[in-house]
Amino acid sequence: MGDIRIIAYPDDKFVNRAGAGSILADNLRQFSDRNPVILGIPRGGVIVAIEVALGLNAELDIVLSHKLSAPDNPELAIGAVCESQEVAVDKQLAIATGADQVYIQKEKERQLKEIYRRSRIYRQILPKIDLRERTVIVIDDGVATSATMQAALMSVDHEKPGKVIAAFPVGAKESLVRLAGYTDGVLCLKAPEYFVAVGQFYSDFPQVTDKEVVRELTRYNKTSGINQ
Predict the structure, then answer these.
(1) In this predicted model, what pLDDT tens digit does every residue of 85-96 receive, in sequence order?
(2) 8 and 58: one domain?
(3) CA 58/CA 72 separation, integer angstroms
(4) Where in the sequence is the domain holding 210, given as residue range(s)?
(5) What is the 8-class DSSP label of residue 182?
(6) Does the first or last residue of the chain, that is N or C, have fewer Cβ atoms within 10 Å of its Cβ?
(7) Coil, helix or strand at residue 211
(8) Which residues pair with 38 in a beta bridge?
(9) Strands 87-89 and 73-82, bridge-based pairing
(10) Measured between alpha carbons, how far is residue 42 from residues 82, 89, 140, 172, 213 in Å?
(11) Confidence at residue 101, expressed as pLDDT on a 0 to 100 scale
(12) Are both 195 and 102 inside the same structural domain?
C-alpha cells in the first residue's frame, strides 16, 4: 500500500481546473527528474493533467479506461477495461455483487464502445505512450467515490509501470485510503471533512466537452513540443 500525502491546502476554493493543476504541479516537483508520464482522466482530469505536465516538463497521455460497474450499482467499480481491451476485475467484489462472467462480458462491451468513441477523437492528437517501467502520475480533478480513479489505476497496472502515483486537488478521506492500495503513493491537496461533490471546491467548474479536451491537448502539444 502506498503512502498518503495530504497537503492541507487552504480552505479557499480552487479558481478552476487549470489553477488547481498548477498548484498540484508545484507539489509534484520531486518527480520531475524521473521522466514521468502524466496521465489525465477524461474529461475534467485532462485539464488538470495538462498543467501538471507543463509544470514538470513531462510527457502527457490520457487514461482511456472505464470502470466496470457492479450490477444495480453503477457507482461501484468491480473492475476496469482499458483501451487495449484488457480487463482487470476484483474477483472478490465481483462475486459479492453477483457479477458473473456473462455480466462482466456484457459490461465490458458496453464500456468499450465509449472508449473507442473517445479514442477516435483523442488519439488523433495524442498517440499512446508505452508505460512499461515508467513513473506514472495519474491525475483527476477530484475524487469522490474513487471508482473512476480506481478503474484508471487498475488499467494502468496492466501496462507494468515502474511506479504509480495518484494525484488530485481534492478527495474524500475514505477514498484516499482505498486508492492507496492500488498505488505507490497518493497525493491530495485537500481532504475536507465535509465532502459532497468535487465541484463544491472550485469557483469555476463547468462540464468539460470532448471539443474542449481536443483544444487543450492541442495547446499542450504546441506549448511543450514533447509529443510532436
Answers:
(1) 878 788 888 999
(2) yes
(3) 40
(4) 3-63+129-224
(5) T
(6) C
(7) helix
(8) 60, 137
(9) antiparallel
(10) 13, 21, 8, 20, 8
(11) 94
(12) no
| pLDDT value for 196 | 86
CB atoms within 10 A of CB 33: 9
The SS3 of residue 52 is helix
- Domain end among 103, 120, 137: 120
Phi, psi of 117 (to 5 degrees): -60, -45
What's the rounded Cα separation, in Å, for the pair 225 and 195?
38
Residue 215 region by backbone torsions, left for phi larger than 0, else alpha for psi between -120 and 50, else beta: alpha
My answer on whether 143 and 30 are in the same domain is: yes
What's the structural domain count of the chain?
2
| pLDDT for res 226 | 67
- What is the Cα gyration radius of the chain? 17
Angle (CA) 64 68 69, round 5° = 130
As given in the structure block, the three cell numbers for residue 48 are: 488538470
Low-confidence ranges of the chain (pLDDT < 70): 1, 10, 226-228
Beta carbons of 163 and 136 less than 8 angstroms apart: yes
Write down the pLDDT at residue 10: 67
Shared-domain flag, residues 83 and 148: no
